[in-house]
């Protein structure tokens, strides 16, 4: 356990923002090993249990269950027992990091929008996606990049499609809502959990 004197030394006159962040990581590791639990939303331990089940039996998620504007809420690293990446998640929340999933032109296709925003400056990616496999995976790629400043389009650029073996994806884990339903309704927040190709675990809210 972190000693009180050790914490006081870290917060002394010579402390820096970097030191405070390191202290936050230490406190996370000791008292919040997989994140605190907010009512109606899973924490890291809940998601690891759900991930194990989704690997065995699939998540059962359909394109309709994914269609929403998902705001990034929490992040965890590759390691199964890693503490939440609280500073990174807080930064992305402040940038309004959003994953928007819309119906595609085909019955099983989707349109994926990923954006961050700082004031009136917005960076926006868009491209096609689809579900693959039993789990399933949400496979996608971005074919267009836009940079906007308020109503003005500053940059619009086409992006090449990666090789099939390098396409990004999210391994879907589970979805739910504060009332226990997958789709939710007015006044009810929904959540979605998935692990990215790079190994990070993410929780979004809608």
What proportion of the residues is helical, as a percent range? 10-25%
Strand tally, please?
10
- Terminal CA distance reads 36 Å
| CATH class category name of the largest domain | Mainly Beta
- Which structural class do the helices and strands define? alpha+beta
Along the chain, the helix and strand elements come as HHHHEHEEEEEEEEE
Biggest sheet record: 8 strands, antiparallel, barrel
The name of the CATH architecture of the largest domain is Beta Barrel
| Low-confidence blocks of residues | 1-33
Shape: globular
Per CATH, what is the topology of the largest domain? Lipocalin
Count of the separate structural domains: 2
Total of DSSP H or I helical runs spanning 4+ residues: 5
Q: What is the beta-strand fraction? A: 35-45%
Report the mean per-residue pLDDT as an integer.
82
| Sequence of strands across the biggest β-sheet | 1-2-3-4-5-8-9-10
What Rg do the Cα atoms give? 19 Å
């Amino acid at each position: 356990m972190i000693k009180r004197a050790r914490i006081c030394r870290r917060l002394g006159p010579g402390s820096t923002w970097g030191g405070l962040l390191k202290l936050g990581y230490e406190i996370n590791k000791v008292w919040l090993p997989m994140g605190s639990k907010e009512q109606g939303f899973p924490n890291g331990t809940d998601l690891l249990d759900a991930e194990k089940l989704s690997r065995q039996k699939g998540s059962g998620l359909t394109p309709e269950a994914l269609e929403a504007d998902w705001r990034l809420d929490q992040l965890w690293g590759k390691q199964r027992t890693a503490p939440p990446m609280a500073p990174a998640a807080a930064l992305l929340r402040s940038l309004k990091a959003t994953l928007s999933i819309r119906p595609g032109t085909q019955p099983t296709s989707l349109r994926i929008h990923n954006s961050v925003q700082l004031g009136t400056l917005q960076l926006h990616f868009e491209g096609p996606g689809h579900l693959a496999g039993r789990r399933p995976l949400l496979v996608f790629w971005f074919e267009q990049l836009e940079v906007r400043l308020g109503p003005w389009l500053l940059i619009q650029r086409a992006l090449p499609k990666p090789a099939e073996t390098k396409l990004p994806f999210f391994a879907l884990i589970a979805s739910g809502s504060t009332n226990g339903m997958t789709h939710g309704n007015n006044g009810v927040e929904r959540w979605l959990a998935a692990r990215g190709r790079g190994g990070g675990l993410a929780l979004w809210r809608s």
